[in-house]
What we know:
By secondary structure, this protein is α/β, with parallel strands linked by helices.
Amino acid sequence: MTPGGTSGAPGVVVVTGVGRYLGAHVAARLAADPRIDRVIGVDPGAPVPEFADLLDGVERVRLDLDSIGGLLVDLDVDAVVHLALVTAPDPQHGGRAAMKEQNIIGTMQLLAACQRVPRLRKLVVRSSTAAYGVSFRDPAVFTEETEPREVPRGGFGRDILDIEGYVRGFRRRRPDVTATVLRFAPFIGSTADTTLTRYFSQPVVPTVFGRDPRLQFVHIDDALEVLHRSVAEEHPGTYNVAGPGVLSLSQAIRRAGRVAVPVLEPGLSGAAAIARSLGFGRYGLDQVDLFVHGRVVDTSRLEQEYDFTPRSTAAAFDDFIHAHHGGVVVTRDHLAVAEQLVLEGIRQVRSAVRERP
């Protein structure tokens, strides 16, 4: 691609979102690759202390995405890896409005800047299997060509649909750029810290009464490998990235040694609100709908094009379990919380019934 790269590897790479786990680790892996000359990590804030040593070989620039255009042109960038996405709103940092600003406006500004870089030859964008949405009419397995039956209720799923739409427009305007979109299943593993891992780390896990959805995960290390290969090699197109096989929610909870608390579906949002107020993590509509319907994707395109198969969903989940084994004990207080979750679900259902004409 460039004088500094071999086998399709770019010479100068910009990685957004290096202040977080995924961006920091991707940037570090690329910086350690002798095929790549230079890696610049972009993030508006300073990385957390635990990433400081990891990013030793990465040139760091504190910059918002709305100011990145000049940087890309000045550095004569060959490749951009866009990982600066927010997956769940944080009430302490602007909530849903700030999340949308980062995901939608930030991506639009980044792609506009990329369009003006004549030397750019590669764009890699983090996406999610949330692009498929969830509904009762969904197929058993999604392929990359499957269109969502319904627009996702959750903010992250809607953002992903918009982001992928912007990338399609970029592809039309810059057909000379290899654009790779990676639809990741939920991350899991011994080092992953996400809404999902916090959900399974709870001693008491709320579930939807009568539902046992099929789930797929991708080990965070396998996600890093796919991202690395996407930059160092030529893989245009859109790919599902998930571990082969599935786990039902009930199987996952049993493997994790947790206590499942079934909640009637109309009351699940209320139960999630209680869990949040008691310090059990944040759950949005994206997570609630996933635990109602589940989601399974086909990964044959990834395996064929990359010559790489992520470890299975079960193996990835087991790695997470081993890292957290014995970390939580079910106490009397936890059981009291479980009872409160169930009662709240029943209260909400009764209230809904009374309000019907």
